[in-house]
Design a protein that fits this description.
Helices cover 75% and strands 8% of the residues. It has 479 residues and is of the alpha+beta class.
């Protein structure tokens, strides 16, 4: 048995319907073309009739008062008459112009051609070439019945073409009615076939899927065809058999998978915690290197100078060096305490605004530098880990103000509109942003890394002797 795919069935039906419609439409076009050609033939035949009378009129005028202009007009009308007569007989597809393919019409046209060539045209030339006016007038009298008979033949031709056009019009109407009927019957037939071949099997498949979604694994679909939809029904039945077998031991498998997933989740949580601790340790080590290592190197040099001054008994220089050592130790102590505070920072359920206010209060109390805080718009609702990273950036900025800026005032501002920005400004000595914000500055590099963790953008703008502006732009999905 031949197994046709549903695509082949649909294409075959559509091609068959297209061919039938094409034949019907082509027939209507052919009939309409015949009607158009017949109408043009009737029009040209009417012109030939009028031109026959015009030639007779010009002949009469030429006999009464001959002139060269009248002779030229007669010759011109004769040429036009013969040209039109030839087009009527042979047709002109460009216009289009054609006589009906009817034996009577063809016979009548042949008779008209012969009458013109053997009687009418020779007699016209005879009248024109006769020298005696009396003979011309006698010939005109004999020419009138010949002309009437010739024009009668033209009228008969027109009547034949009109009858043929009537038949063609009736045929065209019949074809149009047949085409409308074909469209109606074809549409109904196609709807029925598509419903039988596609809609009904798909509906059964959808109902089966809905029943299976309700845990009814006893559902089976009838296989009524050997095409793709039949294969889908067979595949659905096989799937239902497998699901029915699987569902019997599903609870046990789910329990086993649940225990496995819980174990994996615990391992993953432990790895995440370990990675987070490792990253914080790396950041702390970088901060220690940036702040403490330089201070220790400075203290080492000062101790060596102090030893030389004591050996040389330069007491004044030794006391001055000792004061510098004391100042360096105090700065290192402040750095270590600040780093420990940073490292121990835990936000918990504290919001960002509260955390920044608390940090600024501590900063102002420890350094004496005036610190102000303002917000514009609703402060963002961040996760504790996100607040922690933002606070590390704020505290690192405040630490740089304390150690390097020599500022008397620092301002922190949160502006939230289409995006949320945290701006930190001081009125200190500033620095060369083009030179001092590269990868060589560990503190600024750490700030950028923390901003990158939460998908934020960090920028630095500083003018020497004017101050520094640090801007942290939070991503839209964080607020």
């Amino acid at each position: 048995m031949i197994r046709l795919k549903i695509r082949d069935k649909i294409i075959g039906l559509l091609v068959f319907y297209f061919l039938v419609a094409l034949v019907a439409i082509g027939s209507t076009l052919l009939v309409s073309w015949r009607l158009e050609g017949g109408a043009a033939a009737i029009n040209d035949a009417g012109r030939e009739r009028m031109r026959s009378y015009r030639i007779a009129y010009l002949l009469e005028q030429q006999v009464k008062q001959p002139t060269k202009q009248l002779r030229d007009d007669i010759d011109h009308e004769v040429v036009l008459f013969e040209r039109t007569l030839s087009e009527l007989e042979l047709g002109n597809p460009q216009r289009p112009l054609s006589l009906p393919k009817d034996i009577d019409v063809k016979t009548q046209m042949t008779q008209l051609r012969q009458a013109w060539q053997t009687s009418i045209h020779p007699y016209i030339m005879q009248i024109l070439n006769t020298a005696s006016i009396a003979e011309q007038e006698a010939q005109l009298i004999q020419y009138r019945p010949m002309l009437e008979q010739f024009v009668s033949g033209i009228n008969d031709l027109v009547s034949m073409v009109e009858r043929s056009n009537e038949h063609a019009t009736s045929l065209l109407r019949f074809l149009q009615i047949a085409l409308v009927s074909l469209a109606l019957v074809g549409t109904v037939l196609l709807v029925y076939l598509f419903s039988h071949m596609v809609v009904r099997p798909v509906t059964r498949l959808r109902e089966g899927i809905q029943r299976m979604a309700q845990a009814d694994f006893d559902v089976r679909l009838p296989v009524t065809s050997h095409d793709e939809l039949g294969e889908l029904a067979s595949g659905f039945n096989r799937m239902a058999d497998q699901l029915q077998d699987i569902y019997a031991t599903l609870e046990q498998r789910v329990e086993e998978k649940t225990r496995s997933i819980e174990a994996k989740n615990k391992e993953l949580a432990a790895l995440d915690k370990e990675m987070a601790v490792s990253e914080e340790r790396n950041l702390l080590a970088q901060e220690l290197h940036d702040s403490i290592a330089q201070s220790l190197a400075f203290l080492n040099i000062q101790v060596q100078l102090l030893q030389e001054d004591l050996q040389k008994n330069h007491i004044a220089e030794a006391m001055k060096g000792l004061a510098q050592i004391r100042e360096g130790v105090q700065e290192s102590y402040d750095d270590v305490r600040e780093l420990l505070v940073h490292f121990r920072t835990r936000i918990g359920s504290t919001d960002l605004e509260t955390a920044i206010r608390s940090a600024l209060d501590k900063f102002e109390g420890q350094t004496g530098i005036k610190a102000t805080f303002s917000t514009h718009g609703s402060a963002p609702k961040l996760q504790p880990e996100q607040v922690l990273q933002v606070m590390h950036i704020v505290q690192e900025s405040l630490s740089n103000v304390r150690k390097h800026a020599k500022a008397s005032q620092v301002e922190v501002e949160i502006v939230c509109a289409e995006q949320c920005t945290i701006d930190i400004r001081d009125n200190g000595v500033g620095f060369d942003a083009a030179r001092d914000t590269g990868d060589s500055h560990v503190g600024l590099l750490i700030m950028r890394e923390r901003a990158h963790r939460i998908g934020a953008a960090l920028s630095f703008d500083s003018v020497p002797s004017v101050g520094t502006h640090i801007s942290l732009i939070l991503p839209k999905d964080l607020h």
